[in-house]
Amino acid sequence: MRKNLQTYNKVNVESGVLSSDPHKIVLMMFDGALTAIAEAKGAIERKDLATKSKCLTKAINIFSALRESLDKESEPTISENFDNLYAYCIGNLIELSVSLDLSGLDEISAFIKPVRDAWSQMPESAKQDGMTLLKNREHSETQLAAGN
Q1: Do 23 and 124 touch, CB atoms closer than 8 A?
Q2: Domain 2-122: assigned CATH number
Q3: What interhelical angle do 22-46 and 2-18 show, nearest 10?
Q4: What is the pLDDT along the chain (148 residues), one digit of tens a residue?
């Protein structure tokens, strides 16, 4: 039964990613990082170091992907701030993997939750503005690549 639930969850997440806009994907990434951190905390409390490692690696990978997805050309200052936040989280997660300091995991969650909540409450008009900016950039890049 547990394996069936894991398979269902994996298919559900993959389906969500395939049908999602970039805004929803980032929201799913925040949720995934927060879930992985919470699961790592539980694993540390149970002294389940294998699960702790798996969960912290997942959170680190998510923060790395978020860093790579930053649009440093359009919004360099905002991107730099988020890059610093994600780098801080990654560095601390690596240290916490060794120290097993639960309060450090709480601190990272406390930094990310407001960002996640703000992201989820973004007005539809702001999402559309972002999608328009993205489409315009892709169009410009296509034109440049075509030599026009």
Answers
A1: no
A2: 1.20.120.340
A3: 150
A4: 555 445 444 545 454 444 468 889 999 999 999 999 999 999 999 999 999 999 999 999 999 999 999 988 888 999 999 999 999 999 999 999 999 999 999 999 999 999 999 999 987 776 666 666 666 666 666 766 776 5
Q: Which of 78, 43, 80, 79 is nearest to 58 (CA)?
A: 43
Amino acid symbol at 79 = S
What does pTM read for this prediction?
A: 0.76
